[in-house]
Amino acid sequence: MIRRIHHAAIICSDYDASKAFYTNTLGFRVIEETYREERDSFKLDLAVGEDGQIELFSFPDPPPRPTGPEARGLRHLAFSTSDLDGAVEELAAKGVPCEPVRVDELTGRRFTFFRDPDDLPLELYED
């Protein structure tokens, strides 16, 4: 019935800053950008790797995220990488700090977290 996750949707507070972060900093390719005048809202479809997508939305005055990653709802987004150290170095060179690299106690895989312009937790997971 379900084959895979198609996309994740993110609502940002500063569309230009988030667009620059996801396209320039993370390198996601723009599929399509749409302005919806009736909502005063942009929708930016971004390609993540071969199969994934992110829909980046802007809305006037969206409410902030209630708390950190322990709030109900989406906890974080995780992106896979084959070179965690290289990805961490590349983000640092672009001014994006990462938490110290940890090892997943269940899988033995290395991972770290960083934040987008709206403080959304994003994970890099080495596979």
From TrEMBL:
The record places domain VOC at: 4-127
Q: Give the source's domain of life in one word.
A: Bacteria
The chain's coiled-coil residues are none
Record keywords: Metal-binding
Q: Name one Pfam family in it.
A: Glyoxalase
Q: Which InterPro entries match?
A: Fosfomycin_Res_Enzymes, Glyas_Bleomycin-R_OHBP_Dase, Glyas_Fos-R_dOase_dom, VOC_core, YwkD-like_dom
Q: Name one GO molecular function term.
A: metal ion binding
Query: Which NCBIfam families does the UniProt record give?
Result: PRK11478.1
Q: What is this protein called?
A: VOC family protein
